[in-house]
């Protein structure tokens, strides 16, 4: 059986795969550090260009079931590059470029092996790209694992550091458990429907004999588990703060943006394409998870004293907002998916920006010691470097969702709208209360930037790449604040 | 039209690093910009067709984010026009006042920027005709006001500023949920279109929920009785200009929102909740008055008096009759004029004698600084509702409206409300007279007898106060000037001619 492969459709992950292997080889032959970094960042940029080129063309699909085996079913394809996929691939690649920029200084400071770092990063990005394009459960699972495995290693790359190893172990255990649960769910769904492709599962579920109903119900809920881990939703969120704190900061940025975006894309794909028939089951489940996630995340974030842990818990809380629209079930589902997508895209910009400033600001006097910046260390930043402080304050206000951070406000408006339109008003009220809690800690942090420093202060001199990352993200944030329709339009077009 | 000077103000502020080196120049600049805005507002008033007040005029309508049906839709009618002019006027007067009396804490440049952003938010709220746009402007005022309290406030500013922003943000969140609930089910976010439908096509239960959410949101801002606790702190700690804008305009955004958004969008819900709204309004009136009697701090007392006055405004809205809503809008303007004047005066008192504690100030101000004392007397008397001054009509009409509420509302309840509210009006008189007798009359016995070198009233202070005094008199003596403007749209609001 010969299958024709549409290489154009899989170009983005393919480019990265080639680059990753090249990187590994080059590292073995002791290529200079600069070449490796350039190769890694360059291949991501090229992949991004490929995505843009694909976006101008039509929908492409490959790895389809051959005609002879299809029967009278739909033209099931495992890998589909439609507008939704390309949009998410664009988000993932754009964010990955910023992460690479952020990593350059960190690799030197933390004495991490350059070649391995970039190779693992690229491998994880390949997983993310495949995940957002996957349209059958097996490929979804494999892609999810491809995304997860390199990240375990990445977070443990500071080999001398005990907290890093602990973080990696924790990440590994939670991930394995959630994958196992998800795999069980997949097997139940497969057992009930006899199909792996989402476009076959959906019709099979809608005309399922009633004795199989409990099986499919349990299966569809368990499938959620794997994604709940990826997006750090309660109760699979425990890894987030420790891992963010223990792993190198750029890896934390990667986890909180790239990996999360891919997780949400996968969740939306599975729910909207595969399981719409069981919306009455997963809708309320997600509503409860979303409410819990945002409340727990926000409440715990209130108590945090270090910047990175605060960002970790706040990104847990933000996951709650992103989950909320999906709680509507199949009532106005496309609108809800659009809302989640828009929030993910806007969140990627603002959260990366906040991470960029935090990384640039990090204490460098003792690079090998596991010290984290407390919020009080940010006092007086406005005096020393007003532009950086203004950028961080802007990102925080965006995350809180208030003008002048119009971008964050619109993200919230879109999510509220979708939630309310789907008649889940109680969730909207929970969300309203949560935005207040969220505002409190973001604001406390932002205010600290402008209060005078109590003691001797040090002057962080971020390197050129980090500065470029800060400038890029803040420009994007400003542009999107003035013209949010750029994202909203694209998203509603794509979903 | 309205947006041009505002955008200009914003644009001129961004590169403020290089030009306008001295503080004085910055203050002059702020005055000039806000003056220009005022001129545009006044020219808008002259261009306004007073023959058709219920029609939206001077509309700007452009698509902003079509993906979510968001339009950049602005316009004024008889309800919003007076508030727009009031906002422009008060901001201008604040800058005028700052010209000579900058608040302690420096950083005038930042203050100017924040006040202008505040102005944009306030005017934008009053002219926005799209629900989401309204919300954006509604939120825009939060951060600048927070910063104004935080940076230039009194001793307890941290707590006050946090309380302010958290309370109001909670309100905004619920407001957003309510507005989107209506928007999503009606399929449009355009306020004129939604108002024209009078809630048709929305189920009763939905309207009740939506009005509850929106009402809560606006009630925090207004503020209504159990949700008012942020207000005294914020007012007391804020610098003079902050208090003036807070009392003069920000509170109006709550009541304006109720009239403009909540009432027309969910009329059934309004009918369901009106008795409760009335009850809380009346409690607010009496509670505010009683709290005032117990205050020693001048600013805090004025702040509590705002709770009472906004209670009258809310009572007017709760009657759901044209008379009542007219009274509410009238009360809005009157309260904006008078309370701003009172806060200006309190600021001057505090600046001269370093305290706003009434016991420490002692009496006899009429003897030591007669002009200041006379104006204070005037403002207090206007505030307690002396016939012939602005405060009177708002309260009177609100009571009248409560006597004859909307046909579907329980009349006995509202007549009781009216009686209690009238009692509250008497209490209002009591605390203002107490304040006056403490401060202006009697021998100068307090701990501040050495107040002799108190500065005379400066030109800038006169400039800031005289327009307010004049308008208070004008609106008080010829209430028709204002009522004529608002009556048309209010009638249209209730679907009658």
Automatic annotation (TrEMBL), chain A:
All copies of domain NADH:quinone oxidoreductase/Mrp antiporter transmembrane, residue ranges: 134-437
Classification via Pfam families: Proton_antipo_M (PF00361)
A GO molecular-function annotation: quinone binding
Coiled coil: none
Reactions mediated catalytically: a quinone + NADH + 5 H(+)(in) = a quinol + NAD(+) + 4 H(+)(out)
Bilayer disposition of the protein: Multi-pass membrane protein
Transmembrane segment boundaries: 6-26, 38-57, 84-104, 116-133, 139-157, 169-190, 215-239, 251-275, 281-301, 308-328, 340-361, 387-406, 426-447
Main location: membrane
An individual GO BP term: ATP synthesis coupled electron transport
Keywords, in A-Z order: Cell membrane, Membrane, NAD, Quinone, Translocase, Transmembrane, Transmembrane helix, Transport
EC id: 7.1.1.-
Annotated compartments: Cell membrane; Endomembrane system; Membrane
One GO CC term on file: endomembrane system
HAMAP family, per database record: NDH1_NuoN_1
Record text on subunit structure and interactions: NDH-1 is composed of 14 different subunits. Subunits NuoA, H, J, K, L, M, N constitute the membrane sector of the complex.
Purpose: NDH-1 shuttles electrons from NADH, via FMN and iron-sulfur (Fe-S) centers, to quinones in the respiratory chain. The immediate electron acceptor for the enzyme in this species is believed to be a menaquinone. Couples the redox reaction to proton translocation (for every two electrons transferred, four hydrogen ions are translocated across the cytoplasmic membrane), and thus conserves the redox energy in a proton gradient.
Assigned protein family: Belongs to the complex I subunit 2 family.
Name of the molecule in the record: NADH-quinone oxidoreductase subunit N
Native organism: Actinomadura spongiicola
Gene behind this protein: nuoN
TrEMBL record, chain B:
InterPro entries from the UniProt entry: NADH_Q_OxRdtase_chainM/4 (IPR010227), NADH_UbQ_OxRdtase (IPR003918), ND/Mrp_TM (IPR001750)
Biological processes annotated in GO: ATP synthesis coupled electron transport; electron transport coupled proton transport
Localization: Endomembrane system; Membrane
Cellular component GO terms held in the UniProt record: endomembrane system; membrane
Membrane topology: Multi-pass membrane protein
GO molecular function: NADH dehydrogenase (ubiquinone) activity; NADH dehydrogenase activity; ubiquinone binding
EC number(s) given by UniProt: 1.6.5.-
Alphabetically ordered keywords of this record: Membrane, Oxidoreductase, Transmembrane, Transmembrane helix
Transmembrane segments: 28-48, 82-99, 111-129, 135-152, 164-182, 202-220, 241-261, 273-294, 301-321, 327-349, 370-394, 414-433
NADH:quinone oxidoreductase/Mrp antiporter transmembrane domain segment(s): 128-405
Family: Belongs to the complex I subunit 4 family.
Protein name as catalogued: NADH-quinone oxidoreductase subunit M
Species per Swiss-Prot/TrEMBL record: Actinomadura spongiicola
């Amino acid at each position: 059986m010969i299958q024709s492969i549409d290489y154009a459709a899989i170009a983005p992950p393919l480019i990265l795969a080639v680059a990753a292997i090249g990187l590994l080889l080059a590292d073995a032959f002791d290529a200079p550090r600069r070449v490796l970094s350039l190769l890694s960042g360059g291949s991501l940029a090229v992949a991004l260009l490929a995505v843009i080129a694909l976006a101008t063309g039509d929908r492409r699909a490959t790895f389809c079931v051959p005609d002879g085996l299809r029967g009278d079913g739909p033209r099931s394809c495992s890998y589909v590059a439609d507008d939704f996929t390309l949009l998410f691939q664009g988000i993932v690649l754009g964010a990955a470029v910023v992460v690479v920029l952020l990593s350059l200084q960190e690799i030197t400071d933390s004495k991490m092996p350059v070649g391995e770092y970039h190779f693992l990063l690229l491998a994880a990005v390949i997983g993310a790209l495949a995940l957002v394009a996957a349209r059958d459960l097996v490929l979804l699972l494999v892609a999810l694992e491809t995304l997860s495995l390199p990240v375990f290693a990445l977070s443990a790359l500071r080999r001398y550091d005990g907290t890093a190893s602990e973080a990696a172990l924790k990440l590994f255990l939670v991930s394995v458990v959630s994958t196992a649960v998800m795999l069980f769910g997949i097997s139940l769904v497969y057992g009930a429907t006899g199909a792996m492709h989402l476009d076959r599962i959906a019709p099979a579920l809608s005309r399922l004999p009633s004795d199989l109903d409990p099986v499919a119900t349990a299966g569809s809920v368990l499938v959620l588990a794997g994604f709940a881990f990826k997006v750090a939703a309660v109760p699979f969120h425990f890894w987030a703060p420790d891992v963010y704190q223990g792993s190198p900061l750029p890896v934390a940025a990667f986890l909180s943006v790239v990996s999360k975006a891919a997780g949400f894309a996968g969740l939306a794909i599975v729910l909207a394409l595969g399981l719409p028939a069981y919306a009455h089951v997963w809708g309320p489940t997600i509503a409860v998870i979303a409410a819990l996630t945002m409340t727990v995340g926000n409440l715990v974030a209130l108590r945090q004293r270090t910047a990175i842990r605060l960002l970790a818990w706040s990104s847990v809380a933000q996951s709650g907002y992103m989950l909320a629209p999906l709680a509507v079930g199949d009532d106005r589902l496309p609108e809800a998916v659009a809302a989640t997508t828009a929030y993910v895209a806007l969140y990627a910009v603002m959260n990366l920006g906040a991470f960029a400033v935090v990384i640039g600001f990090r204490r460098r006097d003792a690079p090998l010691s596991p010290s984290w910046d407390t919020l009080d260390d940010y006092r007086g930043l406005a005096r020393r470097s007003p532009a950086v402080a203004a950028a961080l304050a802007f990102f925080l206000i965006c995350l809180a969702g208030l003008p002048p951070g119009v971008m964050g406000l619109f993200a919230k408006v879109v999510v509220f709208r979708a939630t309310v339109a789907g008649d889940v008003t109680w969730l909207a009220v929970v969300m309203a209360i949560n935005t207040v809690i969220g505002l409190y800690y973001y604001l406390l942090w932002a205010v600290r930037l402008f209060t005078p420093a109590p003691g001797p202060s040090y002057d962080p001199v971020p390197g050129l790449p980090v500065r470029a990352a800060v400038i890029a993200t803040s420009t994007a944030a400003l542009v999107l604040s003035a013209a949010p329709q750029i994202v909203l339009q694209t998203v509603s077009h794509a979903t | 039209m309205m947006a041009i000077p505002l955008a200009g103000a914003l644009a001129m502020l961004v590169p403020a690093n290089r030009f306008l080196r001295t503080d004085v120049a910055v203050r002059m600049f702020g005055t000039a910009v806000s003056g220009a805005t005022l001129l545009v507002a006044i020219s808008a008033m002259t261009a306004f067709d007073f023959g058709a007040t219920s029609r939206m005029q001077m509309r700007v309508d452009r698509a902003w984010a079509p993906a979510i049906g968001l339009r950049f839709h602005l316009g004024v009618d008889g309800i919003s026009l007076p508030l727009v002019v009031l906002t422009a006027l008060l901001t201008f007067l604040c800058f005028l006042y700052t010209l000579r009396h900058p608040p302690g804490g420096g950083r005038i440049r930042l203050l100017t920027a924040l006040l202008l952003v505040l102005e944009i938010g306030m005017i934008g709220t009053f002219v926005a005709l799209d629900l989401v746009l309204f919300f954006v402007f509604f939120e825009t005022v939060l951060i600048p006001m927070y910063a104004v309290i935080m940076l230039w406030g009194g001793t307890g500013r941290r707590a006050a500023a946090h309380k302010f922003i958290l309370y109001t943000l909670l309100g905004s969140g619920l407001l957003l949920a309510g507005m989107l609930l209506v928007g999503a089910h009606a399929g449009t976010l355009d306020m004129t279109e939604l108002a024209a439908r009078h809630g048709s096509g929305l189920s009763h239960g939905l309207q009740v929920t939506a009005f509850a959410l929106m009402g809560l949101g606006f009630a925090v801002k207004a503020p209504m009785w159990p949700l008012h606790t942020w207000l005294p702190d914020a007012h007391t700690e804020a610098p003079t200009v902050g208090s003036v804008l807070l009392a003069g305009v920000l509170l109006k955004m709550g009541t304006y929102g109720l009239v403009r958004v909540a009432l027309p969008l969910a009329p059934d819900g309004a009918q369901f909740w009106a008795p409760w709204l009335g009850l809380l309004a009346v409690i607010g009136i009496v509670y505010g008055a009683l709290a005032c009697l117990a205050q020693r701090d001048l600013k805090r007392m004025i702040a509590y008096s705002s709770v009472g006055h906004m209670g009258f405004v809310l009572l007017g809205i709760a009657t759901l009759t044209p008379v009542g809503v007219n009274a509410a809008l009238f009360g809005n303007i009157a309260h904006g004029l008078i309370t701003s004047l009172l806060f200006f005066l309190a600021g001057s008192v505090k600046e001269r004698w370093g305290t706003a504690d009434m016991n420490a100030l002692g009496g006899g101000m009429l003897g030591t600084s007669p002009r200041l004392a006379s104006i204070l007397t005037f403002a207090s008397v206007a505030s307690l509702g002396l016939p012939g001054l602005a405060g009177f009509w708002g309260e009177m009409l609100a009571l009248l409206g409560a006597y004859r509420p909307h046909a579907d509302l329980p009349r006995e309840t509202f007549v009781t409300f009216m009686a209690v509210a009238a009692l509250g009006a008497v209490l209002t008189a009591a605390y203002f007279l107490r304040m006056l007798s403490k401060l202006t009359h009697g021998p100068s016995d307090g701990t501040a007898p050495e107040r002799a070198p108190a500065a005379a009233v400066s030109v800038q202070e006169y400039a800031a106060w005289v327009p307010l005094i004049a308008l208070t008199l004008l609106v008080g003596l010829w209430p028709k000037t204002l009522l004529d403007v608002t009556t048309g749209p209010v009638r249209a609001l209730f679907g009658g001619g």
